[in-house]
C-alpha cells in the first residue's frame, strides 16, 4: 500500500485551537486515515491516507459534517 496525500481548506476554523484538535481527532479515527495535521492559522488540513480504504471525498464529507466548508486539493 502506497499512502496518498491530500489537503483541504477548512473555512471557518478558528485560531483558538479547539476546532483544529477536534478536527484532527475525528479525522484520525476514520478507517484508512494514517496521519492528520490541521493548521488553523491558514485554515488547512493535511491528510495522509490509504486510497484502498478511504477516498478524499469521504474525508471532505466528514469535515463538512463538523460544520466547515471544504474542497479536495491534491498535495
Provide structural commentary.
It is a single chain. The protein has 75 residues and is α+β, with helices and mostly antiparallel strands. It has helices at 18-28, 56-65; strands at residues 4-9, 33-39, 44-49, 73-74. It has a four-stranded antiparallel sheet, covered by helices on one side. The radius of gyration is 11 Å and the shape is globular. The chain contains two helices and four strands, in the order E-H-E-E-H-E. The protein starts with a strand and ends with a strand. The longest helix has 11 residues, at 18-28. The mean pLDDT is 91.
Summarize this entry quickly.
The chain has 75 residues and is an alpha+beta fold.
Keywords for this entry:
28% helix; single chain; alpha+beta; 75 residues; 4 strands
Q: Give the biggest sheet.
A: 4 strands, antiparallel
Order of helices and strands: EHEEHE
Enumerate the spans where pLDDT stays under 50 for 5 or more consecutive residues. Answer: none
Helix fraction bin: 25-40%
Instruction: State the end-to-end CA separation.
Output: 18 Å
Q: What radius of gyration results from the CA coordinates?
A: 11 Å
Number of helices: 2
Can you give the mean pLDDT?
91
Number of strands: 4
Instruction: Record the strand order, biggest sheet.
Output: 2-3-1-4
Broad structural category: alpha+beta
What amount of the residues lies in strands?
Answer: 25-35%
Shape: globular
